[in-house]
Amino acid sequence: MNEHIASIPDLDGRKLAAALVAVQTALRTTIEELAKLNEGKGQHWFNTLEEVVIRDAKGTITEDIPIQAEAEALKFGVDVLQATLNASRNQLGLAAKE
Predict the structure, then answer these.
(1) Nearest to 73 by CA among 62, 85, 84
(2) CA distance 4 to 60
(3) Rounded CA gap, 25 and 19, in Å?
(4) Terminal CA-to-CA distance of the chain, rounded, Å?
(5) pLDDT per residue over 4-42, tens digit each?
(6) Phi-psi category of 32—alpha, beta or left, where left has phi over 0 and alpha has psi -120 to 50?
(7) Which of 20, 25, 36, 66 has its CB surrounded by the most CB atoms within 10 Å?
(8) Predicted pLDDT of residue 1
(9) What is the dihedral angle through the alpha carbons of 90, 93, 94, 96, rounded to the nearest 10 degrees?
(10) Spatial CB neighbours of 65, under 8 Å, sequence gap ≥ 6
(11) Could you give the CA distance from residue 36 to residue 19 in angstroms, rounded to a whole number?
(12) More confident residue, 40 or 1
């Protein structure tokens, strides 16, 4: 079971934006390091990574947030995650997922 390891007290737009930039940067760095480890192995590893992280992100839930607000926030989070993965795919010169 995935467990949330952080919460942001008094969440506002600036805190959310800062957290988003930090996580996005960390994810891209992680993907770059994984690319080095998987050099010469094609892009199957990236496709698998993408499937797993998108699936896991879609499976998250948050307590004490109205369902509509949670759905909107989750969609935004998944869209940002997908955009980050797409940017990493392009940076690594990998073909678009079929």
Answers:
(1) 62
(2) 9
(3) 10
(4) 30
(5) 656 666 777 788 888 888 899 999 999 999 999 999 999
(6) alpha
(7) 20
(8) 46
(9) 40
(10) 73
(11) 26
(12) 40
Classify residue 97 by its DSSP letter. P
| Amino acid sitting at position 85 | L
- How much is the pTM? 0.78
CB 39 within 8 A of CB 46: no
CB 34 within 8 A of CB 93: no
If you search the block for the tokens 């199957």, which residue do you land on?
A: 44
Inform me whether the pLDDT recorded for 63 exceeds 90. Answer: no
Question: Which two tokens mark 18?
Answer: 């800062």
Which of 91, 95, 76 is CA-nearest to residue 31?
Answer: 91
